[in-house]
């Protein structure tokens, strides 16, 4: 499946189906209500402690969130809490 990426303003999109792949951290709440911008900044600041490095990337000094990887990470966080409760 040949993914062709291009930068559309601040968003990285996949050409074939126009699905958003990466979102700048500063624009997170324009696309998703949860988690809040402050929570996302906290996750970013503690990325080495919480494993968030798997979905964060830095491009030109700005953090970008890989949307699919973020949601996978969130699912794993929920599963971890259930298993260790």
| Spatial sequence of strands, sheet with the most strands | 1-2-3-5-4
Report the total helices.
4
| SS class | alpha+beta
Report the count of strand segments: 5
Question: What share of residues are in beta strands?
Answer: 25-35%
Q: Please tell me the total number of domains.
A: 1
Q: Regions with pLDDT < 50 over 5+ consecutive residues?
A: 1-8
**How many strands, which pairing sense, and closed or not: the largest β-sheet?**
5 strands, antiparallel
Average the pLDDT over all residues and give the rounded result.
80
Order of helices and strands: EEEHHHEEH
Roughly how many Å is the radius of gyration?
A: 14 Å
Please render the helix and strand layout as text.
Elements: E1 5-8, E2 11-14, E3 20-24, H1 28-31, H2 37-45, H3 47-50, E4 56-59, E5 62-66, H4 67-83
Antiparallel strand pairs: 1-2, 2-3, 3-5, 4-5
Description:
The chain has about 80 residues and is of the alpha+beta class. The chain has 4 helices and 5 strands; from the N terminus they run βββαααββα. The protein has one domain. Helix content is about 40%, strand content about 25%. It has a 5-stranded antiparallel sheet with strand order 1-2-3-5-4. The longest helix is centred in the C-terminal third of the chain and has 17 residues, at about 65-85. The radius of gyration is 14 Å and the shape is globular. Residues about 1-10 have low confidence and may be disordered.
């Amino acid at each position: 499946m040949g993914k062709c990426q291009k930068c559309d303003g601040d968003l990285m999109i996949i050409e074939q189906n126009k699905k958003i792949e990466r979102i700048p951290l500063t624009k997170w709440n324009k696309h998703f209500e949860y988690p809040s911008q402050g929570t996302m900044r906290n996750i970013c600041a503690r990325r080495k402690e919480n494993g968030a490095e798997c979905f964060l990337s830095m491009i030109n000094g700005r953090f970008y969130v890989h949307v699919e990887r973020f949601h996978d990470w969130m699912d794993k966080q929920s599963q971890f809490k259930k298993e260790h409760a």
